[in-house]
Design brief:
Length: 159
């Protein structure tokens, strides 16, 4: 056996597994109930840029970016956001966390056993999707984002 054949044979299952993920639909749907009991429908936000932010209470970079995301949404009329607490904590614990770290956008819980259908499972937190005003995916970020990254992504999407 060629000295590199064994390596290829070893890595092939991992390569196939990585490509097995389904592509997100052109217009992803998101229907969740927020922690305050209200229904949230991403399609209702058409005409606005929408930040879909997966985070967790134990995620230090998530906690660090929350005030900036909240400020960004509060100061940009054309931008909305939905926070998705990606964890199996009790909703009361997430609400208590948000009482200490308030945000200017709704938050829903997404449990690990019931992920949202049209969005890929986060490979790291925070994970953020930017949805364009026409409902299509403009871009996606893994790791913390800030106003400069959002401004650049929105500017690129407007071209």
């Amino acid at each position: 056996m060629n000295k590199y054949a064994w390596l290829a044979a070893l890595l092939l299952p991992f390569a196939l597994l990585a490509t097995a993920r389904a592509a997100m639909p052109a217009h992803p749907a998101l229907h969740v109930t927020t922690l305050d009991g209200k229904p949230y429908d991403l399609a209702a936000e058409r005409g606005h840029w929408v930040i879909v932010n997966f985070w967790a209470t134990w995620c230090v970079p998530c906690i660090k970016e929350m005030p900036e995301l909240s400020h960004y949404v509060a100061t940009h009329k054309e931008v909305r956001a939905i926070g998705l607490a990606y964890e199996d904590s009790e909703p009361a614990d997430i609400k208590a966390f948000l009482a200490k770290h308030p945000v200017a956008y709704p938050v829903a819980q997404v449990t690990l056993d019931k992920p949202v259908k049209d969005f890929d499972e986060p490979r790291g937190l925070p994970t953020t999707y930017l949805i364009a005003p026409d409902g299509t995916l403009a871009t996606h970020f893994i790791g913390p984002i800030d106003a400069a990254k959002l401004d650049a992504a929105i500017a690129k999407g407007k071209r």
